[in-house]
Amino acid sequence: MARKETAADAANAGRLKQIALTYKMTRKADTKIGLVLAAVGIGTLGVFLAIGFLIGHPVYLGIFGLLIALLATAIVFGRRAERAAFGQMEGQPGAAAAVLDNIGRGWTTTPAVAMNRSQDVVHRAVGKAGIVLVAEGNPNRVKTLLAAEKKKMNRIVADVPVHDLIVGNGEGQVELKKLRTTMLKLPRVLTGPQVTATNDRLRALGDLMSNMPLPKGPMPKGMKLPKGGPRGR
C-alpha cells in the first residue's frame, strides 16, 4: 500500500513539475499568460458567487464556480501554451515532422522521405485518409519534390489516395498550427488492414535518413553532404 502511495505521489510531483515547466516556456512567448489566467479564474468564480448570492446559495454556487473556474483556467492555459509552442516552432526546420509525430493514434509518420540541397523536405504520413505528403520549405522548390514523391507513391500504391500539403502562411498553404486539424478532417477511405498493408509496402522503401550512407555516431563538425548526396526522390 505504501509503495502505491509513493508511486502516486511521485507521479503527481512529476505532473506538477511538467506544468510548471510548460508555464515557464509559455511565459517566454506570452508574457501576459499570468494575468490572463488570473482574470479567467477570478472572473469565472466571481460570476458564480454573484449568482449564488442572488439566489440565496452562495456556498453551493461558490464550490461549483471554483470547479468551473479551475476547468476554464486549464483550458485557456492549454490553448495559449499550444499557441506559444507553435509560435516557437514555426519556421524551424523539422517543425512539421514534430507536429506529425504527435498527430495521434492511427497514423504512421516517416520524416524526410525527400529532401534537396536547400533543406526543403517532404514528410510522409499514412492513415485511414490514405497517404499524406507534407512539405516544408520554399513553396516553389517543394512543389518539385512533392510532384516526384507523389508520382512514386502512385506507382507503388496506385489504389491508395495521396494528398499533398505545404506548410506555410501563404495562399494555398496550411499553417503549422492547423496542420493536425487539417489532416484529421481528411475523409477516411481505408480500413485498418488496408492501412497496415500500405505501411508494409512503403516500409520496404525506407526513408531518406535510413538510406543515407552516413557513418554511425555523431556527425563530425564541418562535415558536408557529398555532391552526389541524396536529392528528392
TrEMBL record:
<dbReference type="InterPro" id="IPR025445">
    <property type="entry name" value="DUF4191"/>
</dbReference>
<feature type="compositionally biased region" description="Low complexity">
    <location>
        <begin position="219"/>
        <end position="233"/>
    </location>
</feature>
<feature type="region of interest" description="Disordered">
    <location>
        <begin position="210"/>
        <end position="233"/>
    </location>
</feature>
<keyword id="KW-0472">Membrane</keyword>
<keyword id="KW-0812">Transmembrane</keyword>
<feature type="transmembrane region" description="Helical">
    <location>
        <begin position="33"/>
        <end position="53"/>
    </location>
</feature>
<protein>
    <recommendedName>
        <fullName>DUF4191 domain-containing protein</fullName>
    </recommendedName>
</protein>
<keyword id="KW-1133">Transmembrane helix</keyword>
<dbReference type="Pfam" id="PF13829">
    <property type="entry name" value="DUF4191"/>
</dbReference>
<feature type="transmembrane region" description="Helical">
    <location>
        <begin position="59"/>
        <end position="78"/>
    </location>
</feature>
